[in-house]
Amino acid sequence: MLWCHQIPPPPREHSTFKSIAEAPMRAPLLPARFGIHVMAGMYEEYVTMSKSNVTLFGDGIGNTIITGRHNHNDGFTTSFSASLSDCGGRRFIGAYMTVRNEAGTNKNQAVAMRASANHAAFYRCNFEGYQDTLYPEEGNQFYKECQIYGTIDFFNVGPLVGGEDGGGGTLVVVVADPPWDDDPMAPATTFDDDDDIIVGT
């Protein structure tokens, strides 16, 4: 069974929820999947999904945009700079949206998507930022028809599992023009063999 709530873009005078993050609080404590439809629009907020079996889906890449500006230079750790985080739960699904961090090229770590829910899956999502755009902190994750935009360490940690074991996933890394002379790098150098990010072909 799928429970579903719809989130309109700002302003939300007549909406049940005043933010995206409010919606999962209504999710029943049952094994049923809970859907949150985020309608087309720009959402400048910081969203944390901490319940299991939540599906967050928009109206398409470039149409539904979750964005923020938190970054290391302004006092946020890598984990807490994320515009969207899935943590504390399991089996999160994100689909049909753009997740962005607009902090800029000189702010160091500035995460768009922090993924730490085990057995998470993403379908047709863009992750846009500069440094540490996609931060797969822990857990097993699957990406299908997704793109990452960045200049350095686009996907911060975790091994990339591809080839025959990829399970049909596709993850495209797009190198933005860096403002410095160094070549962009991806991924970062820290890995944990217990966690898999399946990207395949």
TrEMBL record:
One of its GO terms (biological process) is pectin catabolic process. This is Pectinesterase catalytic domain-containing protein. Keywords: Aspartyl esterase, Cell wall biogenesis/degradation, Hydrolase. Gene3D superfamilies: Single-stranded right-handed beta-helix, Pectin lyase-like. It catalyses: [(1->4)-alpha-D-galacturonosyl methyl ester](n) + n H2O = [(1->4)-alpha-D-galacturonosyl](n) + n methanol + n H(+). It comes from the Eukaryota. It holds the Pfam family Pectinesterase. Residues 15-155 form the Pectinesterase catalytic domain. It comes from Cuscuta australis. One of its GO terms (molecular function) is pectinesterase activity. Pathway: Glycan metabolism; pectin degradation; 2-dehydro-3-deoxy-D-gluconate from pectin: step 1/5.
